[in-house]
Every structure is written in structure tokens, then in C-alpha cells.
Amino acid sequence: LTGLSVLQMELEALRSIYEGDLCFRELSPVSFQYRIGESGDPKAFLIEVSWPETYPQTAPVISMDAFFNNTISSAIKQSILDKLMVEVEANLGTAMTYTLFEYAKDNKELFMEKQPVNTVTSVSNSIVIGTPDVPASKKKDKKEQLSKTQKRKLADKTDNKGELPRGWNWVDVIK
Q: Residue limits of the RWD domain (predicted)?
């Protein structure tokens, strides 16, 4: 019974803290998602925290399997989860969901520093919108300007060296 009331109290606390926060989503009374970073930020990621029956005496289940995270390499996801688990160990026995979300927010840059998407997007962000044929990007890499969605799809298709498989651009004929 006490375990339930602790969870109930944490649930109420989370609801009141994150009320109106668009980054926070309650998937169920024991499962929550929090988006770290602005929507459209290439370094944004989603953390999902679920409470097993024995929480908070045992660790919550932390997942980064959300579709939102599909551009993040599994190595980075693992490193984020590892860092979060250190926090979990330190907070066992206490209501820690808020602590985990805030810890992730505070350490977003550190978590994502090795995320390769960054280099591609910083190049495109410096280019004036409305002029798709800017030669500046051509010097860096001989690819045409891509939207963020196209870049994400591209990142999914490339191997770890950033090489594209043969025929990756064949669909451009349709344009």
C-alpha cells in the first residue's frame, strides 16, 4: 500500500510540475516520455521512463526506443542510458523520474556531443533560407541542399563512415 501511495504522490508531482510542458507526455500512470531539446533540434531526444511494480526501490525502466530517436546512433543511446543509470543508482528508493528528466536536460549537450548529425545541420543553418543553390555547401560536401527530414533519412541510410550506398539519389529523377 505504501508503495502505491509513493507512486501516486510522484505521479501527482510530475503532473503538476510538467503541466503545460509540451516536452512531457504521460503515456500511462506509470510510463512517461520527456523530449529533451526543442522540436526540430537535431540533438533533441526522447527519454521514456516506466515504473515497474517495485519502483522506486528498484530502478525504473528507461528506454530510448521511441521513433523520435531513430536518427541517434545506438552507441549514443547506450551512453545516455548508462549515464542515466548512474543517476538511478544514486537515487534508488526515492521518486526519481523528475530528477532523471532534469539531469538529461542539464546534460543534453554532453550526451549528444558525439552525435554526428550536428555537423551536417550546422552547415545548413548558416545558409540563407530562400536560396537553395548556395555554393558554400558544395565546397564542404558535393551534396545538394536537403531538408531536415531528408537529412534524417539520409543519416539512416549511410553507414558509419557517412558513405552513401549506390543509388541513394536515384529518386531525384522524379523531381
A: 9-111
